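2024-03-11 09:14:02 INFO receiving multi-entity request
2024-03-11 09:14:02 INFO entity count = three
2024-03-11 09:14:03 INFO echoing inputs for audit
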Amino acid sequence: MTAKGRVNLKNICKRFGSFVALDHIDLEIEPVEFFALLGPSGSGKTTTLRMIAGLDSPDEGVIEVDGVDVTHAPPGERDIAMVFQNYALYPHMTVRDNIAFPLKMDRVAAADIKRLVLQAAETVDIDHLLDRRPGQLSGGQQQRCALARAIIRQPKLFLLDEPLSNLDAQLRLQTRVELKKLQRSLNVTAIYVTHDQEEAMTLADRMAVFLDGAIMQIGTPEEVFNRPRTIQVAAFIGSPPMNLLPANLQGTTLTIEGRDFELSAAPPTQAESVIMGTRPSHVRIDPNGIPAQLYLSENLGESYLLNLYLGEHLVKVRVAEMLGVTDGDTVPISFDVNAIHLFDANTGLRIERG
Amino acid sequence: MSNEREKQRHIHGSNVSRRSVLKAGVAGAATLAAPGLLIGRAHAAGEHMDLDSFMGAGIDWHMADGAQINIGVIPAGYFKNLEAVLPDFKTLTGVDARLEMIPPGQIRQKAVLDLSSKTGTYASHSADPMYYQLYVTNGWIDPLDDYLGNGKLTDNKWFDFEDIQPGHRGATSVDGRPYGIPFDGEATIQIYRKDVYDAAGIGPAETLEEYESNAAKIHDPDNRLWGCALRGFRGAGQNMYIYPSIFRSYGGEWFDGDRITVDTPEALGALEYYVKLLNNYAPKGVENWNWPDIADAFGQGTVGSYIDAHGSAAVVANPEKSKVVGKIGFARWPKGPSGKRVTSIWNWSFPINGALTDKQKQATWLFNQWAGSREVQVATSYAFPGAYKRTGANRASLWEDPKFLDLMGKFGHNYVQAATESFANDTDPDWRPRLPQWPAVGDTMATAIQSALVGQATPADALKDAQKKIDKILKT
Amino acid sequence: MLVSAASLLLLVWVFPLLWAILVSLKSENEVLAYPPNLIFEPIAQNYKDALFGDFSIVPSLVTSTIVAVSTTFLTIVLAVPAAYAFARLRLPAKKTLGFYTLATQMVPPVGLVIPYFLILNRVNWLDTYQGMIIVYLTFSLPFAIWLMVSYMEDIPLEMEEAALLDKASRLQTLWHIIIPQVRGGIAVTVIFVFLNAWNEFLFAVQLGGNTVRPVTVAMYNFVSVEQTLWAKLAAAALIAMLPVVIIGIAAQKQIVKGLTVGAVKGGGRR
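2024-03-11 09:21:47 INFO inference complete, emitting structure
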C-alpha cells in the first residue's frame, strides 16, 4: 500500500503587503514522517503550516498533497487535522461534542460517532472527562481534547502549531513523549511548528529550519545539528548555539585571533576569509591556549557554562568543573580542530571537509 | 329661520328620540348622565337615524358612491359616538369613511405633515381652530363657501349652516370665508361648589376681583380645600387656553396693526392677576395641572372653584369619578376690568383637504355635512343609546331643544343658563391671536405664563421676553 | 449601609410599577382618593375593560406583536451575518459603521419623521406593516450590527479555522460555532430591538394609522380629551408590559449563559 500524507511545496511565495513572509520555498515531506518546521517567530514557519492547512493561500507556487494540487482547495477538503496553539476548543460544547464535531460535519452515523469519540478519548486518556466543558479542564486536558478532536477523523495530515507552548515545563516534557508515541501509533504524517529547537530535535524525523522567510536547511535533527548548512543555522541550532569566530584560512593553516591551527587536510575552498564554528563542549581550557577573559560563569547543574571574551568575541565554553577559575580571571582556551565547522565568510555557506 | 323648517326639524328629532329612548331605557336611566367610555357596540347600518330625514335635503347623497376617505380624530367620547353611528353614513351615501383615532398631542403634527406633503391621507380631521390661518395661508384646505353655495352639493334649507354656534363658525373662518364645519365645541364657564359657596354666604363671581375674593373666603388648605384652580400647565392648549380670556377681559388687544402685542399694560394686569390668584389660592403644583387634573381635584372635593370648558361638567358630575355630584353650581366667566366676559371659542371642526380628488372632496363634504347636521348631532348626543352623551353639540337650536336641555340640566345648578348665555354673549373671535404662526406664538406665550407662575421671571419680564421672541417669529 | 442604599434604589425603581399595579386594581374613584386607600377591594374590571371593553387594546397588542417580533426577527437574521462579515472581513466600511450607528442615534427622531413620511408615502407604504417594520429596521439594524460586531470580535479566529478544518462550511461555522458563543450578545440585541420596537411611539403615530396602530398609540384612548382614565390606563400599560417582561426573562437566561461561555479560560485567548 502506498503510504499517504506526502506533501510537496513548490516555489511558494507569500507576501503580506510589502512584507515577504515566504520567499520562494520548496519543501517535500514524506508520508508518516514527523516533520518539524523550526524557526524564530516571524520566520515563516506558521505561515507555511497555515498554507498547508488551507487557512492562507500562497501568492505563488503550488501545494500538493499526495500528488494532488490543493493550492487553493478549501481547508475542509484537504483531509487535514490541526491542533492550534491555543487549542481552539469550542467553549460552548462538551468535550464529547468537541471531539465529535468533525465527524458530525462529515455526516458520520451517530452510532459510529459515539464509538469513535470514546476511542479517541481513550487514546489520549480523557475518556473520563467527556461531559465537561473546555472551561472545566486543565491546560493539559484541553490539549488532549484538541488532540482527540484532531485524530478522530484519521486525517492524512496532522498539523500541530506550537501545541506545547501553553503547557508548563514539566508537562511539556511528558506530553512531548506522548505526542511522539501517538504519531507513531497513528502512522500519520505530522507537521509540527515550533520555535523550540529542543522540541524539534527530540520529536522530528526531519526538520526544516526557517529564517526570514526562507528555508535554510532541511534534514534530520542530526544533520542539522552536526552539519549546519549556513552560518545562520549554526547560530540558531544548539543550546547554546555554537561559537562563531572569524578566521583566516591558508591551505591547512587556520588563523584565529593570531594563533595558527593546523588542519589535517586542506578544506575544499578558495576562500581565505572564513568563519570558524565550534560547539561550547568542543572548546577546551588549555594552558597553551589563547588567553581569554572570563566574564561570567553559569551553573547549569550537570555542567558549567563559561562566557569568555576572546578579543572582542564572546566565546561560550561548556566544562564539567570550574577548575578553580573565577569571574575576571584570564583563562587560556583551545579548539578541537577536528570538531570545528568552517563557513565561507562571504557566502555564509558551510565548507565541507572530507 | 322659518317655522316650517322648525317643525320639520322637530318631527325628525322626535323620530330619532323615540327609537333611541327605547334603547336608552335598556341601557338604564341611571347611567344617563354618566359619561364614560362604555358606549354602545356597533349597530347595524341605518339603525341610529331615520334615513328619511336626510332625504329631506335636496342633494344626491350618493354622488360620491364608492369613495373611501379617512378622517383623523382624537380619541374622545364625542368622536367615539360619531364612530358608532358611522355605519349610517355608509348606508346613506355609499361612501366608506373610516375614523382614525390619533392621540391629541400628535394630531396637529400629523395633520400638518399630511397637508403640507399633499399626501391626502386624511380627507378631513378634527382640526384645531387656531390652525386654520396656517392651513389657509398655505392653501392646504378648500374654502367651504364654494360647497355651501353650490346647490348640487348643499341644500342649506336642510343643513342650516347658520344654526351652528356663531362663535364656532367664526373660529373656523378666515377673512370671512368658512373653512371648517364645527362638530363639537365648548364655552368656558365658572364651575363652583355651591354647597361651600352657600355656607360662606357668597355666590358665583360677577367680576374677576370677586372671583379672587370668593377664593380667599373659602380657601382652607388645612382642611384640604383650596380656593380655586386654573390650567397651569405649559401649552398652547393649556395655560394659553385660560390666560387669553383674562387678557381680553382686561381689555388686551392681540393685534397692533400687523404686530402682535403681548406686553401691554392690559397683558401685564391679566398675567399678574393669574399669577397672584393661583399662587395664593390654588393647590401646590398647579403649574403642572391640565384640565383633567383640575377636574379630578374638584371631583375629589379639594378645589372650591375653577373655570374651564363646559364639557368638564360631565366629569365632575359623574358619580363614578366624583364625590361632589349634586353640589355643583355653574356661572358665566366673571367680567374683567373692561367689563367684558370672554369665553373660549374652542371647537373641533372638519375641513376639506385640498389635495383630494374631486370625488373624494365630494365624499368629504358629504361627511362634514352629515356630521355637522342636526340629525347626527342629536344622534350622538341625547339620543345616543350609550352612557356617554355629548355636551358639545354644535347647534344653537339644540340648546333650545328640551330633550338636550333636560340632559344638560342634570349636571348641576344653573348649568344650561350659564352655558347658553356664554355661547350667546361671551364668545370673542379674537379670544386668541389668529395667525399662521400660532403654533410658535402659542408655545412662546405658554412658556412665559408658566415661568411667571413659578416665579422664574416677574410677569413684566416674562411678557417682555415673550414679546421679543414673538417679534422674531413674525419676522421670519 | 450598602444594603440600605440598594434597597432605597430598588424602592425608587419599583415604586412607579407598584403604583401602577395598585391603581389598576382600583376603581376610577378610588384612584384619586386622598389619603390613598392602601386597603381596598381589588377589582379586575379595569383589566376586563382594557382587554374587552370599547377601547380594547387586544387588536393593538396583536399589531405591536407583529411589528416588534418581525422587526426583531429580521434584525437578528440580517444583523448576525452582517456583524460576522464586519468582524471577520476587511471591509472598508468597518470604521464607518460605528459612526453611522452613533449618527442614527444622534439625529433627533423628530427630524426623521418627515423624510420617512414622504418616502413611505411615495411607495404607498404609509400605515402598512412592511412600512413600519422597514422604518424600525433602519434604526435597529446598524445598532444591532454594531453591538454584535463587538461580541463576534471577541471570538478567537482559530475557533473558526478549526471548524473550517473540521469540514464545516462558512454557514455551518456561523451556526454551530459563532452563534452559540454570541448568544448573550444576541439576547441583549433582541431585548433592545424588541423593547424599542414595542415601546416606539413617535413613528408609530405618524407613520401608522388604522391598520398599524400599536399599543403605545392605542393607549391614548384612555387619555382622552375629557379625562384620563388612570385605572384603565394602568391596567392597559401593565398588560402591554407583559411581553417585554417575558422577553426580558427569556433573554436574561441567554445572557447569563453567554457570560459563562465567555469566561472560559484558554478558549477566549487569541
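2024-03-11 09:21:48 INFO post-check: Chains B and A do not touch (no CB pair under 8 Å).
2024-03-11 09:21:48 INFO post-check: The first helix of chain B runs from residue 3 to 27.
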